[in-house]
Amino acid sequence: MKNVQIGIKENLLNFILLVVTNFFVGSMVGLERTILPIIGEEDFGLVSTSAALSFIISFGFSKAIVNYFAGAIADRFGRKKVLLVGWSVGLLVPLLVIFASSWWMIVVANIFLGINQGLTWSMTVNMKIDLAKPTQRGFAVGFNEFAGYTGVAVMAAVSGFVASSYSNRPEPFYIGIVIVVIGFALSLIVKDTQAHIKLQASKSTKNTTLSAADIFKNTTYKNKNLSILTFSGLSTNLKDGMAWGLFPIFFASVGLSLSQIGLLVAIYPASWGFFQLFTGFLSDKIGRKKLIVGGMWLQAISLWMILLVNEYSTWIVAAILLGVGTAMVYPTLQASISDIADPSWRASSMGVYRFWRDSGYAFGALFAGILTDLLNVGWAIGLVAILPLSAGIIAAIRLRETLPSLFKENS
């Protein structure tokens, strides 16, 4: 550990490689975001919204489960090995979608996409936190999420353009094969961060050892701060699971073209990705709580705004605001988790948090499908917005600031 240093500047090349790698991780999700709900209706004749959104449910649950185990496995075997396995699994996703003859093959493809995302995205964010100083965690996570959601946005727009120029399948998914090859190649070059974890653990003043069961309980409900952060993450991705499945259907129902839908669907994660460049860094300066509370409320308000307006330009504004609200909380929640957790079990705690957070994709798609089938797409969007509003209220009342410098001042 003699030559190992903690800090983004001190590990700049490896940090940049991880940023670029996560752009391609996010691109795997963006590939599907515009066109897969439409493929369900047009190619496979799915009438039930619940059935059409089953691919998001399979993705959400598989990613959530893999997130949980990925953290513990990475703590034991190293981040880089897990990252490479994630990319290997990812190759199955575009191949299954290209050759799918029935909808169940699309559902299976998204189980593999969940595994790919759970392994690769988890590792890139954990490795950046490993490299960063405590006062750089928000910036590190923000940059990671910026890269990933920029990938989501770029590929959502590209896939919509390719689909409108050629067809829904197979042309957009040829790009997916190229993405996997590039991502795997970049991951081979990335250096593992095990030595950085050991160095941080040796300097830690917490010196706590927890079992896997204790880590799960603390992150889920026993530790007040960790449990509030986890519920906020779950609420955020529940909203996103709904948006992923229902936004293309909602905007198609009001008469927008596929290219217009592609732009709207891309602007939301583009805004989400871009503003994380600033929100993560800002949370290192002003604290985590303000951004978490305000971001949860802004997400709810933006969803209701989408329902209340009726012009394309205003929908663009609402999509941008939804992205800003999500950007305020996404890196901040993960930075806050890393403030609390000891380096020796930080990845495991992050895995539990990401398990609950990403199960929100599945719950969001499930609730959105049921509510749309029972009521309509507008009611589904409006009712789902209540959850981030509630999470913001709970955080405002119960969450204690976790940024180390501010926490010490308030202690």
Summarize this structure briefly.
This protein is an all-alpha fold and 411 residues long. The protein has helices spanning 12-33, 36-42, 49-52, 54-77, 79-90, 92-99, 103-131, 137-165, 171-189, 194-203, 212-222, 224-253, 258-286, 289-308, 312-340, 346-374, 377-384, 386-398, 404-410. It has a single domain, classed as Growth Hormone, Chain: A (Up-down Bundle).
Structure description:
It is found in: Cell membrane. By secondary structure, the protein is mostly helical. It has one domain: MFS general substrate transporter like domains (Growth Hormone, Chain: A, Up-down Bundle). The chain is built from 19 helices and no strands. It has helices at 12-33, 36-42, 49-52, 54-77, 79-90, 92-99, 103-131, 137-165, 171-189, 194-203, 212-222, 224-253, 258-286, 289-308, 312-340, 346-374, 377-384, 386-398, 404-410. The longest helix has 30 residues, at 224-253. It is globular, with a radius of gyration of 20 Å.
Strand and helix layout:
Elements (H helix, E strand, L loop, with lengths): L11 H22 L2 H7 L6 H4 L1 H24 L1 H12 L1 H8 L3 H29 L5 H29 L5 H19 L4 H10 L8 H11 L1 H30 L4 H29 L2 H20 L3 H29 L5 H29 L2 H8 L1 H13 L5 H7 L1
Helix pairs in contact: 1-7, 1-8, 1-9, 4-5, 4-7, 4-16, 5-7, 5-9, 6-7, 6-9, 7-8, 8-13, 8-15, 11-12, 11-16, 12-13, 12-15, 12-16, 12-17, 12-18, 13-15, 14-15, 14-17, 14-18, 15-16, 16-17
